[in-house]
Task: structure prediction
Amino acid sequence: MMKKILYLFTLLVTLTITAQAQTADEKAVADAGNQLNQGLINRDIKLLDDLVATELSYGHSSGNVENKVAFLEAVSKGPVRYIAINLSNQTIQVNGDNAITRHTQDLDLVNNGTPTKLKIGNLLVWHKYNGKWKLVVKQGFKL
Result:
């Protein structure tokens, strides 16, 4: 009887750990998202160019929508400078070569010289191109 209880306990612990573990693709998408945020903070256009797909649609919580060229231009020369980007409540759902990420962002930024704090929600759609995850859609929304 004791062996059965120990076996069931071990099975439950294993299933719990397995259910909570990220898959390799989920981890890769999370890593790509972290790189995206670091690219925004550092204004690393080369990194951002590599992380976003040619057909990027980047929707801001203000309603402004940018394609890849406009997005990279805004990051490199625009009036907004990201200081810190902190994520919470992130979920990642992978389905084949597509992934959807949702999270809340706490942003510290400078907009036209004025320090600003924002809290917004985001929906991101990623696609795996030749084994590399690239951002296809990002839509911010007000909370």
Q: What stands out?
A: The first strand starts at residue 52 and ends at 59. The chain has one domain: 23-142. The chain has four helices and six strands. The radius of gyration is 19 Å.
